[in-house]
Amino acid sequence: MDKKKFTDACSKIINQERRQAGIGTLGEKTLHAVLKSYFEPCEENQEIRIGGYVADISGESGIIEIQTREFNKLRNKLAAFLEFSQVTVVYPIPYLKWLVWIDNETGGATKKRKSPKTGKPYEIFYELYKIKQMLTNPNLKFCIVLLEVEEYRNLDGWSDDKKKGSSRYDRIPVNIIDEIYIHNIKDYVKLIPPGLPAEFTVKDFKAASKLSRYTAGLALNVLNYVGVVERIGKHGNALIYKITKDTHL
Asked: Which CATH topology does 191-243 take?
């Protein structure tokens, strides 16, 4: 993690290019553009056509794809790239988020307020499940980037205050908190939350990770698939897991 390099990327994308056109007005969202500049400042290595696809970045360390959601849309591109290159998928997670609401009628914006929610690296499991069959490919790697962001949302929701069901306008990264790399299968141990008992269920994983029960189930499905945890039995209808013998937290 390089905070200066990240600050430089923010300055380049936000202060120069996007303030001229207006935040959120360009086709590429600000968060994606900043991360692309952070991981590869040289624009000659950005947006590189490879076969029938365009890679966000292609350089000495291989291909880098920045994906904020919907990993399922990466399947065909990954299948093509992984045949001949190392591919790192960068997944940003807002660890700390400030909310700003935009009134579409007046164009005004509220003062930013801190969201009570804290982002967690375990959130990536919801996306990893969508490409589960690719996770054991030795060329596929991930980088989870925890960020502080300002999120701009439109007051266009269905509730009385127009916040519930609202649409997101843009996300502006302001600080980088951490980077978590998954270089190989054994690195998935980094995505096992502390505090689990020796033998645990989805309910236990949910409590330790603060994920929803549904996503906790997906997480254990993925971890079992890559071999970091194993199913050892059942208690009633609940599957029981343990961390595999050669995995070290």
From this structure: Arc Repressor Mutant, subunit A (1.10.10)
